[in-house]
């Protein structure tokens, strides 16, 4: 009996040993690391578009996507040829594969028939969506649905909107980076040097805005053969979940001041006919709301900004209180100009609340918000009928190491 128990125990232990462990593991060298995705509509002829519309068995809302995946080629990252400056397709550190289909899951599955490594998305850095997809009804949300549902994907991937097609953005050849997607990812993080780009917006944030039907802005990206430019903003309407227009670089700067998302940057202002450059160190904003009449609410932004003088072509004694006050007022007027240009664009033209006023009402005046939330920037559009003004206060904390009055004679001698 004891022998039987020993044999039984040994068999159970052996089975547990054989069935335990990482039975479904995939070796790292077998993974196809996807670091960038670009989503477009495929180019089709007028006849094909007409046939699609007239197809009796075509489900309503069905559309085709052209998706470009950027894979990492590990051998290209350590290629001796690249170190010597030789560029050719054999030693590239990335591979772009494009495929077309009705769904992104179908496209991802189809890539497995063409690549030796199946797509692996846990290291996905950027998702770039074309202007056409972003403007089409529901296509933007449909394009992101796969990324939001797949548990393999992280919600920290950055989302950007291409001005034009998205695919060319992943096909650039940056001179200082081997992987275009990593180069794009790094450019998008330079928000402490400029306020003319929207701070990075991640997939999880986009999902939250879509679920809550909140209007929002995403970074705009353009490209040429060797580089990209992440500047400006793409404005999305919260109810329709589609792109309604773009903000220029200065309008984006104003938007960042109004939404309290300025991390740094510089402002140029004129003193007389000369230029002075103000380096922003901190910025904050406060909102005061007069809600006595919901059909004509009034909002006043107060923007407070601190910084230093980094460059001056004006010969002034900045240690003089009057000179400093004049410069502070000039910088404040520049901030007010930027903010009012942005307000004019989103408030009067787009009529879309990317300024965060709806969120302010929801937090500070919840009873009123319950009454008007379905008519805020759609329906009756109380947002468009409101009045919005802005006031800026600027404080110069440092004028640099040079007092121009004291060194004026030496500069003129030069």
Automatic annotation (TrEMBL):
<dbReference type="Pfam" id="PF05504">
    <property type="entry name" value="Spore_GerAC"/>
</dbReference>
<comment type="similarity">
    <text>Belongs to the GerABKC lipoprotein family.</text>
</comment>
<keyword id="KW-0564">Palmitate</keyword>
<dbReference type="InterPro" id="IPR038501">
    <property type="entry name" value="Spore_GerAC_C_sf"/>
</dbReference>
<feature type="domain" description="Spore germination GerAC-like C-terminal">
    <location>
        <begin position="232"/>
        <end position="400"/>
    </location>
</feature>
<dbReference type="Pfam" id="PF25198">
    <property type="entry name" value="Spore_GerAC_N"/>
</dbReference>
<feature type="domain" description="Spore germination protein N-terminal">
    <location>
        <begin position="24"/>
        <end position="222"/>
    </location>
</feature>
<dbReference type="InterPro" id="IPR046953">
    <property type="entry name" value="Spore_GerAC-like_C"/>
</dbReference>
<keyword id="KW-0472">Membrane</keyword>
<dbReference type="GO" id="GO:0016020">
    <property type="term" value="C:membrane"/>
</dbReference>
<keyword id="KW-0309">Germination</keyword>
<keyword id="KW-0449">Lipoprotein</keyword>
<dbReference type="GO" id="GO:0009847">
    <property type="term" value="P:spore germination"/>
</dbReference>
<keyword id="KW-0732">Signal</keyword>
<dbReference type="InterPro" id="IPR008844">
    <property type="entry name" value="Spore_GerAC-like"/>
</dbReference>
<dbReference type="InterPro" id="IPR057336">
    <property type="entry name" value="GerAC_N"/>
</dbReference>
<protein>
    <submittedName>
        <fullName>Ger(X)C family spore germination protein</fullName>
    </submittedName>
</protein>
């Amino acid at each position: 009996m004891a022998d039987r128990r020993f044999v039984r125990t040994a068999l159970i232990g052996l089975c547990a040993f054989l069935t335990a462990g990482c039975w479904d593991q995939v070796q790292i060298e077998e993974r196809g690391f996807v670091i960038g995705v670009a989503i477009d509509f495929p180019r089709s002829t007028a006849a094909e578009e007409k046939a699609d519309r007239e197809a009796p068995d075509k489900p309503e809302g069905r559309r085709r996507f052209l998706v470009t995946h950027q894979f990492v080629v590990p051998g290209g990252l350590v290629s001796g040829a690249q170190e010597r400056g030789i560029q050719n397709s054999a030693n590239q550190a990335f591979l772009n594969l494009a495929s077309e289909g009705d769904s992104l899951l179908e496209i991802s599955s189809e890539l497995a028939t063409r690549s030796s490594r199946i797509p692996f998305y846990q290291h996905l850095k950027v998702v770039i969506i074309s202007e056409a997809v972003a403007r089409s009804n529901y296509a933007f949300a449909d394009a992101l649905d796969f990324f939001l549902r797949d548990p393999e994907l992280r919600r920290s991937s950055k989302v950007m909107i291409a001005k034009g097609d998205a695919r060319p953005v992943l096909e650039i050849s940056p001179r200082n980076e081997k992987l275009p997607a990593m180069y794009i990812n790094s450019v998008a993080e330079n928000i402490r040097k400029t306020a003319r780009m929207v701070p990075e917006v991640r997939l999880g944030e986009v999902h939250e805005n879509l679920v809550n039907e909140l209007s929002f802005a995403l970074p705009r990206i353009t490209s040429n053969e060797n580089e990209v430019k992440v500047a400006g903003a793409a404005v999305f309407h919260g109810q329709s979940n589609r792109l309604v227009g773009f903000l220029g670089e200065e309008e984006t700067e104003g938007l960042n001041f109004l939404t309290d998302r300025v991390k740094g940057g510089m402002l140029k202002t004129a003193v007389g006919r000369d230029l002075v450059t103000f380096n922003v160190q901190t910025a904050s904003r406060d909102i005061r709301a007069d809600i006595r009449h919901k059909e004509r609410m009034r909002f006043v932004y107060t923007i407070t900004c601190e910084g230093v003088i980094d460059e001056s072509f004006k010969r002034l004694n900045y240690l003089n209180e009057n000179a400093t006050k004049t410069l502070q007022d000039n910088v404040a007027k520049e901030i007010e100009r930027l903010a009012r240009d942005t307000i004019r664009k989103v408030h009067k033209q787009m009529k879309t609340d990317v300024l965060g006023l709806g969120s302010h009402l929801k937090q500070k005046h919840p009873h009123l918000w319950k009454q008007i939330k379905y008519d805020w920037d759609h329906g009756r559009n109380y947002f468009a009928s409101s009045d919005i003004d802005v006031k800026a206060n600027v404080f110069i904390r440092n004028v640099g190491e040079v007092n121009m009055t004291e060194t004026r004679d030496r500069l003129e001698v030069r």
